[in-house]
Structure formats: C-alpha cells, structure tokens
Write a structure and sequence with these properties.
By secondary structure, the protein is of the alpha+beta class. It has one domain. It is built from three helices and nine strands. A hairpin with a 5-residue loop joins β3 and β4. The protein is elongated, with a radius of gyration of 23 Å.
Length: 192
C-alpha cells in the first residue's frame, strides 16, 4: 500500500513539474539520499527526492472491527484496518551551482501540495482505488529536530520540506467468521 501511494505521488509531482517547466524528463524520484553503506545514491543529483522518514500509527481513528456484507446475504467478520500516517521528506537535491534551481523546484512542489491537499480516487482517477484518501499537511520541524533527521540520514542538508500524509489504511480482509443475515422481523401479532 505504501508503494502504491508514493508511486502515485511521485507520478503526480512529475506530471505537474513537466507541465509547469516544459521538462522532458522526470525530476521527482522516490528513494533515499544515502545507501545503507553510507555512499550517495546514484542518479539523484539535480532531482527532487521523496523519502519516507517515519511511519506513525494513527490513534485517533478507533475501529473495533466489523462485519461487511457479502454476496450471499450474510456478513463476514474482519479485523479492523490499521491506519498509518507517513512523514515524507521532499528534498531538492541540486549541487551548489544550481541552488536557485533547487529553490524553484521545491517551491513548485510546495505550490502543488498547497493547491491540492486532498487526493481521492474520485478526484484523481489514477490513484489506486484501494486507497480511500491521502491528505497532505506541512509538518513544521524545529531546527534541532531537522538537524537530527539529516544526521540520521547521513547526508548534507539540502533545501527540503517534510509532509505528513494522512492516512494509509491497511486491511488484509481475512474473514474470521460468517454470520447469517436477518431475513425478516419474525413478529406474529394476533389481533382479538
């Protein structure tokens, strides 16, 4: 599910950056800035990089599980979905000669998510129908926390923004039990 959501987001950003700036190639990529061995990831220079930096369980949505109707007229008991929020780092990874270009691209991405903060399959048909809704909000990061994030990544700071993307729903849909449906009220009232 994470892959479907972020593949959609990167494609959306690329489509809009290409239209805005008349570009031929994709500028936005999904990935990390640094490999596990500490080396710089290849082919990310002069790109806008989207990276997950944290996942958070959404605790405000309480769902105790439920019953969903099936085609036979009965109901299937399934476990409740798990809702996650994604923290996505959007980095304008441009070298120092292209610093103004990095600011331009980051500004364009901010404009893009400011103008369209809610994505649903109805408003964006290319969004996977299993994803009910994605909502983007800027995550204000204190400077000290931002320093810890970049240190943890193991990369040098580049112009960036962190977005909190609400909520990705995970539900396997494994049926725990089947319960028959109600076919009538079953009341027989005798009148005198």
């Amino acid at each position: 599910m994470l892959d479907k959501a972020l593949t959609f987001v990167v494609a959306y950003v690329n489509r809009n950056l290409k239209m805005t700036f008349g570009l031929d190639e994709d500028i936005a990529v999904l990935g990390s800035l640094v490999n596990l061995d500490g080396s710089i990831t290849k082919n990310i220079e002069n790109k806008v990089i989207l990276s997950i930096i944290n996942l958070e369980h959404e605790k405000t949505v309480k769902n105790m599980g439920g019953y969903i109707p099936n085609q036979q007229g009965s109901f299937a008991k399934v476990d409740p979905p798990v809702y996650l929020n994604l923290y996505v780092l959007v980095s304008a990874n441009y070298n120092s000669e292209n610093y103004l270009e990095s600011l331009k691209m980051l500004s364009a991405v901010i404009d893009l998510f400011q103008s369209s903060i809610i994505f649903t399959p109805d408003t964006h048909p290319d969004l996977d129908p299993s994803i009910e809704r994605l909502t983007f909000e800027i995550y204000n990061t204190p400077i000290q926390e931002l320093s810890h994030i970049w240190s943890g990544i193991g990369a040098k700071y580049v112009p960036s923004m962190i977005y909190k993307i609400r909520m990705i729903s995970f539900q396997k849909g494994v049926v725990k039990e089947e319960i028959g449906g109600v076919s009538g009220l079953g009341t027989n009232i005798k009148r005198k």
